[in-house]
Design a protein that fits this description.
With 355 residues, the chain is of the alpha/beta class. It folds into 3 domains: 69 residues, Alpha-Beta Plaits (2-Layer Sandwich); 81 residues, Met-10+ protein-like domains (GMP Synthetase, Chain A, domain 3, 2-Layer Sandwich); 186 residues, Rossmann fold. A 7-stranded mixed β-sheet has the order 13-12-11-14-15-17-16, sandwiched between helices. It has a 4-stranded antiparallel β-sheet with strand order 2-3-1-4, with helices on one face. It has a 4-stranded mixed β-sheet with strand order 5-6-7-8, with helices on one face. The longest helix is centred in the last third of the chain and has 14 residues. It is elongated.
Length: 355
C-alpha cells in the first residue's frame, strides 16, 4: 500500500472519471483503483494542475482530491514495448521486432540495424517480459551452407544455443547454432504426421533433428521412418531425440548424402517422402521418385517461391521436374503457403500423389 493522490468520485461517475484522467494523462496505471461502498478512488500520477481541475469541473458534477492508501499493481509487462516505452525514443519503438521465435527457453529475434546499439536493452526487456526465457539470441547471419545453419549473438541471459523444445507431445534436444530448426513449422509437422496411415514407410529426406519423423512415429503404432541428414550434429541430436521420445526401431537415423543413401539402400521402399529443403528440393525430385515404391506414393514437396503466383510457380516447377523422371503426378492433393520468408516470398508446400 502506498499513499497516493487520488480523484475521489461517486461510483455513478466512475467510468467518466477514468476516461477523463486517462485522456489528461494523469491516470496512474501502476496503482489499483480503490473502491468503497459509494465511491471510487482513482490514483493519479501527481497532484492535479489547475488546468486538470477545470476539466474535472466541466465533466464531473462532483469530485474531491484526496490522499489515499492505494495498493500497487503486481503485474509484469505483457509486451516488450511496455518495458521499453520509457527507455527508447518513439521512432525506435516502431522498429521493435514484430516476431520472436521461441525454441525451448531460447528467444530468437531479427535485429534491425537501428536497434543494434540498443540490443542489450532489448534482450533484457524480452527476459523481463517472457519469464520462461533464459537466453535471447539475435540472428547474425542468414541460413547458409549445406547444413542450413546460421550464426547467433547472445544479447541477454545465459550464453548458450542448446535447449530442449517441446511440440505436439514430443521432446526435441536441439542446438540452434549447429542444426536447422524452425518452430514456425510446428503446424506443418502435425499436418503431415496426421496424414500418415498405419503400415506406411516414410523417407524423410532432410530430417534435421527429427521433427517430422519422430512426430509420425509418436502418432502411429505401425510405421517406419528413415530419417536422413548430411549434418553429423543433426544426426547426433536425432539419435538423442529418438530415445527421448521412445520411438526406437520406428525411426531409423541415417547420416549421409540423401542421393547416396537412397541409391544404396532405399530404392522403392517409401509410401511417402518428405522433402523439407525448400532452397534446393527441386534438385532432389529424381531421388524422391527413386525412393517411392514402384506403384507410387505421396510426396510432400517444399520450396521458396515469389510473387505474383507463388503457389502456381511451385506446382509448375514440381510438375516439370517429375516429367524428367519415369513418374507422373496423378493429382495434387494440397498446394498452399506455409509461411512468409521475405518480402513477396513464401515457403510453399505441394502434396502430390505420384504414380
Amino acid at each position: 500500500m502506498t499513499k497516493t493522490v487520488c480523484l475521489k468520485i461517486p461510483k455513478a461517475y466512475g467510468e467518466k472519471a477514468i476516461i477523463l484522467t486517462k485522456k489528461l494523462r494523469i491516470f496512474n496505471r501502476a496503482m489499483m483503483i480503490q473502491r468503497t461502498e459509494d465511491h471510487l478512488y482513482i490514483p493519479l500520477v501527481s497532484k492535479p494542475l489547475l488546468v486538470h481541475v477545470k476539466e474535472f469541473k466541466k465533466t464531473l458534477p462532483t469530485f474531491e482530491i484526496s490522499i489515499q492508501e492505494i495498493p500497487t499493481k503486481v503485474k509484469r509487462p505483457i509486451k516488450i514495448i511496455d518495458t521499453l516505452e520509457d527507455k527508447l525514443p518513439p521512432h525506435l519503438l516502431a522498429s521493435l521486432p514484430h516476431a520472436i521465435d521461441f525454441v525451448g527457453d531460447i528467444a530468437i529475434i531479427e535485429l534491425s540495424p537501428e536497434l543494434e546499439s540498443h540490443k542489450k536493452l532489448l534482450g533484457e526487456a524480452i527476459l523481463e517480459t517472457h519469464k520462461r526465457v533464459s537466453t535471447v539470441l539475435a540472428k547474425s547471419s542468414p541460413v547458409e551452407g549445406v547444413f542450413r545453419v546460421r550464426k547467433f549473438e547472445v544479447i541477454a541471459g545465459q550464453s548458450k544455443t542448446e535447449t530442449v523444445h517441446k511440440e505436439h507431445g514430443c521432446t526435441y534436444h536441439v542446438d540452434v547454432a549447429k542444426t536447422y530448426f524452425s518452430p514456425r513449422l510446428s503446424h506443418e509437422h502435425n499436418r503431415v504426421a496426421s496424414q500418415v496411415n498405419e503400415g506406411e514407410t516414410i523417407v524423410d529426406m532432410f530430417a534435421g533433428v527429427g521433427t517430422f519423423s519422430i512426430l509420425i512415429a509418436k502418432k502411429h503404432e505401425n510405421v517406419r521412418a528413415y530419417a536422413i541428414d548430411v549434418n553429423p550434429e543433426a544426426i547426433k541430436y536425432l539419435e538423442k531425440n529418438i530415445v527421448a521420445n521412445r520411438v526406437q526401431g520406428k525411426v531409423i537415423p541415417i547420416l549421409g548424402d540423401v542421393r547416396k543413401v537412397v541409391k544404396k539402400q532405399l530404392v522403392g521402399v517409401a509410401d511417402r517422402v518428405i522433402m523439407n529443403l525448400p532452397e534446393k528440393a527441386v534438385e532432389y525430385i529424381n531421388v524422391a521418385c527413386k525412393a517411392l515404391k514402384p506403384e507410387g506414393g505421396i510426396m510432400h514437396y517444399y520450396e521458396f517461391a515469389k510473387a505474383p503466383n507463388p503457389i502456381e510457380t511451385a506446382k509448375v516447377r514440381l510438375t516439370e521436374a517429375i516429367k524428367k523422371t519415369n513418374r507422373n503426378i496423378d493429382r495434387v492433393l494440397v498446394a498452399k503457403t506455409v509461411r512468409a520468408t521475405a518480402p513477396f516470398e513464401w515457403q510453399i508446400v505441394v502434396d502430390a500423389k505420384i504414380q
